Amino acid sequence: MEINYSDKKVLIVDNRLEDLAELKMILGNMGVPDIQVASSVNMALVLLRELSFDLCFVVFDQGKDHKNGLQLIQEATAEGVRKFSTIFTLIVDPERSKLLFGSLDSSPDTYISKPYAESKLRFRIEKIMRIREVLLPLEELMDQGELQAALEMCGKMAQGYPGLHMYIQRLRGIILLELGLYSEAVHLFETIVAQRDQPWARVGLGMSLCHLGHYLSARDALQHVIDESHFCVEAYTWLARTYKALGERGEAIGLLRKAIMLQSTVPELQGVLGSLAGQNQEWNVAVEAYNNAIRYARNSCFQSEDYYFSLVAALLARDNFDREIEEQAIRALEDVVLAFPGEPIVQFKSRLLAAQAYRRSGASDRANLAARNAYDLFCGLELTEKAEWVEPFLEGMEGTSVESDAQSMKQQVNRDSAALEWGKLNLQGMLAYRKKEYRKALGFFVRADGILPNNPSLTLNLVQTALEQARHPGPERHELLLQCDNALYSINYGALSLRQQKRYLSLSDRCAEMIRSMAQLKHETDVGA
Predict the structure, then answer these.
(1) How far apart are CA 360 and CA 296, in angstroms?
(2) By its UniProt entry, which PROSITE patterns does this protein fall under (predicted)?
(3) Which of 1.10.3290, 1.25.40, 3.40.50, 2.115.10 is the CATH number of 422-529?
(4) Residue 524: per-residue pLDDT
(5) What is the rounded CA–CA span in Å between residue 222 and residue 17?
(6) DSSP output for 355-395
(7) Each residue of 71-115: pLDDT tens digit?
């Protein structure tokens, strides 16, 4: 049956205008009436946010120091603007194509190569379109977020279409991970690897094992993908996570640096490298990584004010802090305000760090002025925001002309925050912790975190309490350590205050030591069995 292209919408992403025009002409000859074009990944993301497409043709090589075509798929997936029902075709040399299909959920659906030939293009596209026509009901459920219904449909489709077994199993793996059914996902991916060794299945297996806290087994699965030279961001980031979880930060940093040599324009890799390098006090590496993270995250879902503040923190931590570095720090703090306009927290933190930068360079008058600005901005925050940032606020005011005012403000905020539900729970948790009632304290902190998620101070309280509880043997010990590792990994180390960084490192090292001991015990048990 011949494919009808008259109702199809197509996006072409290519920075070479002549090649773009040629592909557009071929698709027009095939009957495609609606063709949009983009000359960069960021431009394509803008279009994907606004429009839906049936087909997307993306050239892999978009030029030196520019995001490659694979990153469009990765970022569109991370941002949630990629639909499963859209067919992504990567335009790449045939010998390189096999290295670009390692990701579980961010790989292209098929590939074509230049020079274009209408007959070859039509054959490749129509083959995948016929497959996707069968899978459309399943993919529409996934696009609508109806994952449980999609999971049930996977079972029915696998029986009705045995020839599409691998396609369906891949979608099933994605769904299981989204639903948090990690044990089922491990079983699925192990079965796929045993039947037909697929890099995306090994990545899925490694991710599932990481979620379960089986880091050594995850490492084996992910290392195999990298050894096969696949360009898979997930394989590198999750493998680095296994090393970090076990306290081997140096190995994790080395791994991420190798990954960045292959894909330097991935902001996620740069951000993780910056955080780990900071934890290892490799400040030059951290500075370069955060600079690159800022550069490549612009206009994407990875853009974060934390990258700017982490860059400044890394600059402040360096042994040498001359006028040039001071100017670089202040410029970054000005840039973050421009990048996130109208956000009071960003403005406050920018002035707070500016005061620290000026103090570091010995410019006391400027430091006092910036501190006063930060104090005024802090006073204008909502009570919840004040309570969240009161500790870094006071730390940043130390040694300035408004330090005594800041101390009085802290006392007032502490009194007022007792009226907030999460503040009350946090206080109850700290009182229970002091009495060594760790299980009770953990309950308070978990409830507080549910109300105010992603607050560093609260998260560190939760982790510290959970580690105390995990000292006692029992069936919950593994789960507690896994939750601690996940909580610590979610924190961007560079964006913490100096006291928070010190506390973070202490808790991180302690968590890693406990995880290593547990992993070693499991290994010895398995060998004995």
Answers:
(1) 29
(2) RESPONSE_REGULATORY
(3) 1.25.40
(4) 64
(5) 38
(6) HHHHHHHT-HHHHHHHHHHHHHHHHTS-HHHHHHHHHHHHH
(7) 999 999 989 899 988 999 999 988 777 777 788 888 899 999 999
String of DSSP letters for 25-69: HHHHHTT--EEEEESSHHHHHHHHHH---SEEEEES---TTS--H
Classified as helix, coil or strand, 112 is strand
Beta-sheet strands, E only, within 348-506: none
Give Cα separations from 508 to 178, 279, 347, 382, 503 (angstroms).
Answer: 27, 10, 30, 31, 8
Strands 87-91, 9-13: parallel, antiparallel or unpaired by DSSP? Answer: unpaired
43 alpha-carbon distance from chain centroid: 21
Residue 152: what pLDDT? 95
Of 233, 237, 265, which is closest to residue 62 (Cα–Cα)?
A: 265
What are the pLDDT digits (tens) for 271-321?
A: 999 999 999 999 999 999 999 999 999 988 899 999 999 999 999 998 888
Give start-end residues of each CATH 3.40.50.2300 domain in the chain: 9-133
Please, which residues bridge with residue 89 across strands?
57, 110
Name the segment(s) of the chain with CATH classification 1.25.40: 422-529
What residues does 38 pair with on adjacent strands?
13
**Could you give the CA distance from residue 528 to residue 349 in angstroms, rounded to a whole number?**
54
Class assignment of domain 9-133? alpha beta
Confidence of residue 233 (pLDDT cuts 50, 70, 90): confident
Q: Average pLDDT for residues 225-247, to the nearest whole number?
A: 90
Whole-number average pLDDT of the chain = 92
CA dihedral over 424, 430, 434, 439, signed as positive or negative: positive
Round to whole Å and give the CA distance between 140 and 149: 11
Give Cβ neighbours of residue 64 (< 8 Å, ≥ 6 apart). none
